[in-house]
Every structure is written in structure tokens, then in C-alpha cells.
Specification:
The complex is a heterodimer of chains A (269) and B (323). By secondary structure, chain A is of the alpha+beta class. Chain A is 52% helix and 12% strand. Chain A has twelve helices and eight strands. Chain A has a three-stranded antiparallel β-sheet with strand order 5-6-7. In chain A, β6 and β7 form a beta hairpin. Classes of the chains: A alpha+beta (269), B alpha/beta (323). β1 of chain A pairs antiparallel with β8 of chain B, so a sheet runs across the interface.
């Protein structure tokens, strides 16, 4: 009799690969009155593919809409073949999807295909959304009051503590505007917006009352916030982003947005 | 002692994310909720916050899909640690999973795969159930899965396997009547004989669900109403237990409104109150209900492959929600 481990390994390989089972596996399975062994096994093989594709579609809905159903099915299954699930949680299924898309991006005239790079960035954006949605948050904490730092001098020497749900991301494409347009248009006309051209964008993602908030940033805002999150004092961060186009009013506005959206959970004095 | 001494919680439904808002706004008059453990054990966001609030008001049961009690891979104590932490937080009436394996060699199929039912498997699963029960500090409740293949090396029936497993380990049983029906159709055995072989006093809970009848076989799709033959099995099984047992309706695809979901499980009252008017032992022939469902399935699946339409165990996932 085949040991249980051997049987399980053989069965799982067959389910993953989806092909006709070899004689060795067929001899372990029994037909029913109305179905041969191959058809019975195909229920699991088909379900494996369909379930994981459906799951990936739930995790990356804008990506799926951007490429269309048929292409998405093919891409998703190739990804699953390359990275079979190894986690007990289906939520982890998309963890390596952006990296996989970038690694397998086709070349066009010797360059990586721009459309492929956009799709990899869109998948990364949706992965960020998912991680902020269900990651650690600040809902159970009292809001931090910036007013506890009364003077400008004290502000400049302050180190701010980032909220655990704050993510600062730089993208090579305007993925957030694409996503927003898709959310809006898919509900109205069912159409998917055109793919954008390459253009760097910066974004803050956070969570308030369990809803993910997306805030587009300017380049200098992104750099400033990254420095603050990394532990620079406010004074040092402002010194490092020295940019003549940024005036005091813009900096105040940036801090106001960060405070309103609870980017900071405290300060280190 | 019936149900391992655990309470009959009444008629409950599975808590699914499309109903979160309705539940929090209306606090419906449902007896209890079952949650998919994997949807919450890693959550630090809205799903877990919703569950905390629900668990303050309703009895809750944790139902898992990833324990993989039959796998020959080592038990995943990281998973079990998170499971226990969630249980410590929401205080479920019990914790259940399936008699199945979900993966091996470090990989996960995310399906509930069947085991050959023989002495080797029984010994293997028994040891793991005992280890899990010791870790969780409570009896595990295991569900009969729906299945689509059988093994040449099986030497006992599924109810015999479950009976002996329960005797050896003290675990409870979650009897899914829809799975009994589906597997019975798929494997050419009689669902009523299945009930006769089960130890009724070990049954802690019932599951009810809809399935797709594809003619040559049935698929456990959790996407529609419970058919009459499954209700008949349920009535019979319920009446075999002193005081009955907690009953839960699963609906995981094409999820209806909460009111419709709740109304479906409340049909159990009708079935339990009504006197049988037909021979309870003749449910195996296809009724008109089956024909209608099969035709509906064929019609609905005209533009997609049928197997894709009829997906067993729809994926349990709570996707992100953003402003």
C-alpha cells in the first residue's frame, strides 16, 4: 500500500498540474457509477485553478479589469503555477504577484514593455490597499494632539511617531488616479479607463475608522514624510528637502493634512 | 452526554462580509453566528473589529478551513497559535474544522481534500487531533467534507471512520447534511445508511447548504437554497440527538440579502415541526427540485465552463474596502 504521504504528494501534484493523471495515481482512485477516475479528479483540478484565479481577482480587481477577463485568467494561472500557494491564508495569495509581473514583463524594442510595468505597479498598489485595510491600525487609540508641542523650536526638534497603518509609496505610473477612475467608471458605465503613460506619482495610504484613505502627494511631500517616518526631527527633515518652490504655507498645509488624517500617533520630544 | 455537553445554540448563519453592515446596523434576531476562522485570525482591521462587536451580542462558533488535520506535513503551530489567540478573544462556543487535508510539501491547495479511509489514516489523524485538542485546551469538532474521489486503499466507510476517530480522541462531529447528500451521490452510497452509522451523541452541530447538481455528480457550491432531500436528512439526524443540535446555514457564493439568508435557515423550524408525510427513506431519486436546479445551472453556465460555475467550497476571503 502506498504510504499516505506519497499518495498526498502525488495527488497534490496532479491537482496543481491539471493534466491527465498517470497510471500510478489512477490506480489509487476509484471510479463512480457515472464518472471515470479522470473526470472525478478533474473536479479538484478545475476547482484549484478557478478558486485561486477568483481569489486573485478579488485581491486585484482593478488589475483584472485593466487586462480583461481572458488575459487575467491566463496571467493569474501562470502566476499560481510559478508560485503555488504556501500559506494557510488566501489573503497571502497576491504577495508575490507584483514582483512576478515585473520579473516576467515582456520586452519591446529591447526595453521592458511600458504596459507591463504599469500592470506591475497597479498590482503593487492594490496589494498596498489590502495590507493597509487589514493591517494594524489606530482605531483603538486616542488621537495624538499636535497642540501638545507649543513652540516652533520644540517642533523643529520633535521626532514624530508614524501610525502603524501609514504607508508612503512612490509609483512609476499614476496608478491611484487610474484606480479612482476605474472605481468610478466601472460603477457607472462598466468601462475600464485607458492605461496611463509613465509618470511618477507619490501616495500616502492610511486607515481611518477601518476605511483605507488614499492621499496623493507631491514629490517633496513624499520625501519629507519619508524622512519623518524614518526618524528625522522635523527640523532636519525640512532642511533636507530644501526646495525653493516650497513655501512655508505649503509646508503648513502638508502638516495639516498629515494631522487631519492621523499620520502620527505620537512624538518622541 | 449529547453534544459533548455543549449547548444547542439554535438556528444560525455564517457571518460573511457582505452582511457586516446590515448586522451592525440592525442586530438581527438570529440565534448565533459561525465565522470562518481564517478570515479573522490575521486581521487587524475591520473584519476583526466587526467580529469583536458581533461576539459581544451573539454566540459565535469558529469554523476553520486550514487546519489540514489529515496532512502528512507537520501541524502548523503558528496557525494554531493565532487560532487560539482569536478564540481567547472572542470566546467561541467551540472550534471546528474538516476531516481533510489541504496541502502537503509546504504547499496549500486551499481545497478540502479527502483521505483514504483506512487504519493508517485513522492512526495518523487521531494523533493529530489529540495534539490539536491539547494545544487548544478544548475538544475539536470535525466536519464530514463533500468529496469527489474515493481511494482504492479505503477499508472503511466515512461514518465508521468518524465514529472511531471520535471514540479514540473524544472529538465532536459537525455533521454537514448537504455534504452527506453530495458525497452520497458522488460515491454511490446511501445517505440514510450514513446517518445510521454515525454516533449521534457525538454530533455537536449541523451544517446545511445548497449544492449544484450536474447530473453525473453534485458539487458543494454553497450558492443556493437547501433542497428538500437534505432537509429530510436533517430532520432525521436532528431527531436522533437528545435536545437536537446547533444548526448553521452556509451560503458562500451568489450571497443573498441577510433577510433571505436568515429566512432560509428558519425553514428548519418548518421541517422539524412538520410530520413526515412521505417515506423518509426514499430521498435518493431526483425530485423535480433537482431537475429545476440542474436546468438552472445549465442555463446560467451557458457562457462559462460548467466546472467554473460550479466551484466547490467558494474561496473564503475578505477583500479590501477603500475610500
Amino acid at each position: 500500500m502506498r504510504p499516505l504521504r506519497e499518495l498526498q504528494s502525488e495527488l497534490l501534484r496532479s491537482i496543481e498540474s491539471g493534466g491527465r493523471p498517470d497510471e500510478s495515481l489512477r490506480s489509487l482512485l476509484l471510479p463512480s457509477q457515472r464518472m471515470p477516475v479522470e473526470a472525478r479528479l478533474a473536479v479538484y483540478q478545475n476547482a484549484y485553478r478557478a478558486r485561486l484565479v477568483e481569489c486573485l481577482q478579488s485581491l486585484c480587481p482593478a488589475f483584472a479589469a485593466a487586462v480583461g477577463d481572458e488575459a487575467f485568467q491566463a496571467m493569474a494561472f501562470e502566476y499560481v503555477n510559478a508560485h503555488p500557494p504556501d500559506s494557510y491564508s488566501l489573503n497571502d495569495l497576491a504577495l508575490r504577484f507584483p514582483e512576478y509581473l515585473r520579473a516576467t514583463c515582456p520586452r519591446e524594442n529591447g526595453q521592458l514593455w511600458e504596459g507591463g510595468l504599469f500592470l506591475a505597479e497597479l498590482a503593487r498598489f492594490e496589494l498596498c490597499l489590502d495590507q493597509v485595510f487589514d493591517g494594524p491600525g489606530i482605531e483603538d487609540r486616542e488621537p495624538w494632539d499636535p497642540g501638545t508641542i507649543p513652540t516652533d523650536e520644540e517642533w523643529l526638534s520633535t521626532r514624530l511617531l508614524a501610525a502603524p497603518c501609514l504607508r508612503l509609496e512612490a509609483f512609476e505610473f499614476p496608478v491611484e488616479p487610474f484606480y479612482s477612475a476605474w472605481k468610478c467608471e466601472s460603477g457607472l458605465s462598466g468601462e475600464t479607463p485607458p492605461w496611463p503613460r509613465r509618470e511618477p506619482t507619490w501616495l500616502a495610504l492610511t486607515r481611518l475608522e477601518y476605511r483605507v484613505i488614499r492621499i496623493p502627494l507631491k514629490s517633496w511631500e513624499y520625501r519629507l514624510l519619508c524622512l519623518l517616518v524614518a526618524g528625522s526631527t522635523v527640523g532636519d527633515a525640512l532642511g533636507q528637502i530644501a526646495d525653493r518652490s516650497v513655501d512655508a504655507a505649503a509646508i503648513r498645509a502638508c502638516f495639516a493634512i498629515s494631522a487631519r488624517n492621523r499620520f502620527w500617533s505620537g512624538n518622541l520630544g | 452526554m449529547p453534544r459533548l455537553g455543549l449547548p444547542n445554540l439554535g438556528l444560525g448563519v455564517g457571518l460573511r462580509s457582505p452582511h457586516f453592515r446590515h448586522v451592525l446596523e440592525h442586530w438581527p434576531d438570529v440565534d448565533w453566528f459561525e465565522v470562518i476562522s481564517e478570515n479573522f485570525i490575521d486581521s487587524q482591521g475591520r473584519p476583526r473589529a466587526v467580529l469583536r462587536r458581533v461576539a459581544e451580542r451573539y454566540p459565535v462558533v469558529m469554523h476553520g478551513v486550514s487546519l489540514s488535520i489529515g496532512s502528512t506535513d507537520p501541524l502548523d503551530f503558528g496557525y494554531l497559535t493565532r487560532l487560539k489567540a482569536l478564540a481567547d478573544e472572542i470566546k467561541p462556543a467551540w472550534i471546528s474544522d474538516h476531516l481533510c487535508w489541504t496541502g502537503v510539501l509546504g504547499r496549500n491547495s486551499h481545497d478540502l481534500l479527502p483521505l483514504p479511509l483506512n487504519e493508517e489514516s485513522l492512526l495518523h489523524v487521531s494523533g493529530r487531533v489529540e495534539a490539536v485538542q491539547e494545544f487548544l485546551g478544548r475538544p475539536l469538532v470535525l466536519e464530514n467534507p463533500s468529496s469527489y474521489v474515493t481511494f482504492a486503499t479505503s477499508t472503511m466507510s466515512e461514518p465508521e471512520f468518524l465514529r472511531r476517530l471520535s471514540q479514540r480522541t473524544g472529538c465532536g462531529l459537525l455533521l454537514d447534511l448537504n455534504n452527506v447528500y453530495v458525497s452520497g451521490r458522488n460515491h454511490d452510497w446511501n445517505a440514510w445508511d450514513y446517518l445510521d452509522q454515525l454516533p449521534a451523541d457525538r454530533i455537536v452541530q449541523f451544517h446545511l447548504a445548497g449544492h449544484s447538481d450536474l447530473g453525473t455528480h453534485c458539487i458543494d457550491t454553497h450558492d443556493g437554497q437547501v433542497i428538500d432531500d437534505v432537509w429530510r436528512l436533517y430532520r432525521s439526524a436532528y431527531q436522533r440527538i437528545e435536545g437536537g443540535a446547533a444548526t448553521l446555514l452556509e451560503w458562500d457564493a451568489r450571497i443573498p440579502s441577510f433577510e433571505q439568508l436568515h429566512a432560509e435557515v428558519l425553514r428548519a423550524r418548518h421541517w422539524l415541526d412538520a410530520n413526515p408525510t412521505i417515506d423518509e427513506r426514499q430521498p435518493e431519486s431526483d425530485s423535480n427540485n433537482h431537475i429545476t436546479r440542474a436546468m438552472t445551472a445549465m442555463s446560467d453556465s451557458a457562457t462559462v465552463p460548467r466546472e467554473q460555475f460550479a466551484l466547490p467550497h467558494p474561496p473564503w476571503l475578505i477583500a479590501a474596502d477603500s475610500e
